[in-house]
From TrEMBL:
Pfam families: GAF_2. One of its GO terms (molecular function) is L-methionine-(R)-S-oxide reductase activity. InterPro entries: FRMsr_CS (IPR000614), GAF (IPR003018), GAF-like_dom_sf (IPR029016), Phosphatase_reg/MetRdx (IPR051330). This is GAF domain-containing protein. The lineage of its organism: Bacteria, Bacillati, Bacillota, Bacilli, Bacillales. Residues 31-157 form the GAF domain. It comes from the Bacteria. PANTHER family: FREE METHIONINE-R-SULFOXIDE REDUCTASE, GAF/PUTATIVE CYTOSKELETAL PROTEIN. Gene3D superfamilies: 3.30.450.40. Belongs to the free Met sulfoxide reductase family. Transmembrane segments: none annotated. One of its GO terms (cellular component) is cytosol.
């Protein structure tokens, strides 16, 4: 399976180690749902001060809820709507310090105050997003963004 990670060191080094653990965890598995499930569980274990982590996947022109850790969530999100839909429309990571100040924010969990969403782009097509919420404002840093983008690049080899 996989071994415990020593999470000491810089934030980026920690994410590099986490991405290596993801690679080892998913090695040899081809089922997308299983791999996304384990990826969300691994992030939930690694990240502090979060209340939701998971995936939305493109399905017939909209985002549909995929594997996640946390409270029940919105099932469908239109492209261009909310933080997740905007990440797809703009094809870029959205790092939001205060979701309540984001125009059109979709409040799936009233406890969420900040959010980061990374598009999953494969073969130049957005196939979904990684969405992480926190009850803390300004929880996510640029180092988190870089580390999570690395995590997503590793994950894309398995989905």
């Amino acid at each position: 399976m996989y071994s415990q990670i020593n999470y000491e060191g810089s934030v980026l080094k920690q994410y590099e180690t986490l991405s290596k653990q993801l690679d080892a965890l998913l090695d040899g598995e081809t089922n997308v749902i299983a791999n996304l499930s384990n990826a969300s569980a691994l992030l939930n274990q690694f990240l502090d001060n979060i209340n939701w982590v998971g995936f939305y996947l493109m399905d017939e022109g909209e985002l549909v809820l995929g594997p996640f850790q946390g409270l029940p969530a919105c099932v469908r999100i239109a492209i261009g709507r909310g933080v997740c839909g905007t990440a797809v429309a703009e094809r870029k990571t959205m790092l939001i310090d205060d979701v309540h100040a984001f125009p059109g924010h979709i409040a799936c969990d009233a406890a969420s105050n900040s959010e980061i969403v990374i598009p999953l782009v494969k073969n130049d097509e957005v196939i979904g997003v990684l969405d992480i919420d926190s009850p803390n404002k300004a929880r996510f840093t640029l180092e988190d963004q870089q580390g999570l983008e690395l995590f997503v690049q590793t994950l894309l080899k398995f989905i």
